Amino acid sequence: MKPYNTMSKEELTKEKEALTSEFNAHKAKGLKLNMARGKPGDDQLALSMPMMDILNSKSNLYSEGNIDCRNYGELTGIPEAKRLFADYMGVAIDEIMIVGSTSLTFMYDCIARAMLTGVLGSERPWVKEEKVKFLCPVPGYDRHFAICQFLGIEMINIPTSSTGPDMDMIENLVSSDPLIKGIWVVPKFSNPLGITYSDNTIKRLASLKPAAKDFRVFSDNAYAMHIVYKDVPLLSMMDAFKESGNANMLYLFGSTNKVTFPGAGIAFMAAAKENIAFKEKQLSMHAIGYDKLNMLRHVRFLKDVPGIKAQMQKHADLLRPKFDAVINKLEAELTGLGAGTWVKPDGGYFITFMAEKGCAKKIIALCKDAGVSMTNAGATHPYGNDPDDSFIRIAPSFPSLEELKTAMEVFCTSAKLVSAEHYLSC
Amino acid sequence: MKPYNTMSKEELTKEKEALTSEFNAHKAKGLKLNMARGKPGDDQLALSMPMMDILNSKSNLYSEGNIDCRNYGELTGIPEAKRLFADYMGVAIDEIMIVGSTSLTFMYDCIARAMLTGVLGSERPWVKEEKVKFLCPVPGYDRHFAICQFLGIEMINIPTSSTGPDMDMIENLVSSDPLIKGIWVVPKFSNPLGITYSDNTIKRLASLKPAAKDFRVFSDNAYAMHIVYKDVPLLSMMDAFKESGNANMLYLFGSTNKVTFPGAGIAFMAAAKENIAFKEKQLSMHAIGYDKLNMLRHVRFLKDVPGIKAQMQKHADLLRPKFDAVINKLEAELTGLGAGTWVKPDGGYFITFMAEKGCAKKIIALCKDAGVSMTNAGATHPYGNDPDDSFIRIAPSFPSLEELKTAMEVFCTSAKLVSAEHYLSC
Q: Which ipTM did the prediction report?
């Protein structure tokens, strides 16, 4: 088919009519499908069912160092959990703490604590500053942005390319504005683009010279080993920050929520030894310790990093056909049509679709109208405001393959219909 | 024996010498005993071992309403957990949310959120006030006070009698000072006194007319069913606050940490429907949900409130001999001696010892010197400062009965020795 931007009004009108009846046919089916969240599918959850048998009343419930996992204590986690997830995050055992079941909640908690009391090296609590600003590479993760918005932190969009966020812009901003206290990054298989930061990007992040002495890089390594097609090595952030003499500038977060069970996993924070010691002291004011039985269950199930990699390979085998289904449908229906482009990721949980400018909201509204839930347009940007109204995050993991194929038919029809209307009105 | 305050210098000197050699004999044993924290004993943990077999890979892991407990979702918890713990806390199912594994962390989180964004009805975040103050009934729980101190909240001591904190003082302060935003209470089997607030105290708390429109009662109902000797009914706080038209003024917290496994339990917050809805909206900014598998495990194990009561009766049967050992030793060694008094509680986790003025720190230092760890003197008061240096919290749950008896010998010798010295120097 001819690209929409080369079609005559008549051709576009005809196309629009055809697409409208196609859309109405979808709508008539009364679908109820969901491509909104990065939620693992039932087949992925089944991979961790053996973990349910790891601990029982006959098990030894003591961890290394003779710690009774059924009782209070061990604020930073049991040794074997710290060792496993330190290996997973590429840090030393005294550079990690286990922090409950969800890393997002702990990220919020870190920023809330920074607001109220400051981080290691702060001259004052962040709330005592005239204003606090964060840099937000876009497209990014809506819940990171929600945390900043909730806490009244001003967010600044940073465009992202295939090598990572615009480092020139970041360097300029960070070195000149002492109110910029942090940056969100998802360095590997980023949410939603699926890109992995280049070595150069990591080195430049590690070498930042912030005007704010208590600036922090909030690195959400949610997809550390979450390949779909192939692994892309990420330079060790901790090593890079240490080499630059900026070790204390880095906070790393991760969890097993997409390794084992979402919501019932193990979350952790990695940082330089001094940061961890400082955090432990802060936490001791309001926490006694996190669920050690679940730590033990996880370590005995996953065993070691090769164990995690083997588990992630099984996840990849289940995710790949779903990613294929999305990519293949987009390629078959939209290639060269001028109705949007997309990024095929190597890993992570999402496929990013870039609609024609001003078309994303309309596409998502049409999908919803036909019973297909998508992440809101704008969710990829701070304040829910994508200035181009272009980015759409497709989450293929939760629906079954059949549901996904149907949902993608609705999506492609919607994208074409909105684009045809867009060019008609140009 | 004669009371110390009636002894002559000679008699006291002789007594001191005898006690010093008694103390040195204890010290020579090289003991390592701990009466510091309210940590359940191994025998109590064993009561919950059947819970380890409740879920396995063959179990139905869906909750009521067909919610997959292995996946994301249900920010406020699964329905059966909300129902069970609503019953336990004496509230309705839409007046509760399940909030992870430890209530202390969530109490901190509530206050931190109030500081940063306010509570329902706040005109501004609490950090925007000139200052924030909390009322702290004393003796009280050190970790409540640590949260306030960490957040820079000024604490005001409120004396406590057998019916609860001094309500005249509370009414006067709360109605006149708009910077007083909260009060900590442990209304049942309080930490450490073990008293239960009278109906009148609860009614007066419920009828407060705070100058601060966003004042909150932080009620830590940690020991709701934690009898040792006998149950003492607590008036329903939620009902009382509703009757006074102050439903939104009440936050209730609780957990199963001393019902099942400390650190691996279920924590919850109860409050009026509007408060819960407001909190849920706030939480949705930075949380996706808490461990639903652990909720399911707990509900299927505990079943219902009679199930919890039966479990707590078993705990009581194990705790009672330990409380008896402490009380009996105190009665045998110290009755009428002028070397301190004590409170025999009906339930909870502690026995409170009131040393002669200015003697608590010295007693605890001596105990430590002889290998017996106690909660720090002053821990029962804000800023770790007991103005009378009198209160000592004895936690009898963790040591074995034999260890406890030995520890109490050391304690009584220390209390007598410090008291004899005290009267010698008078």
A: 0.97
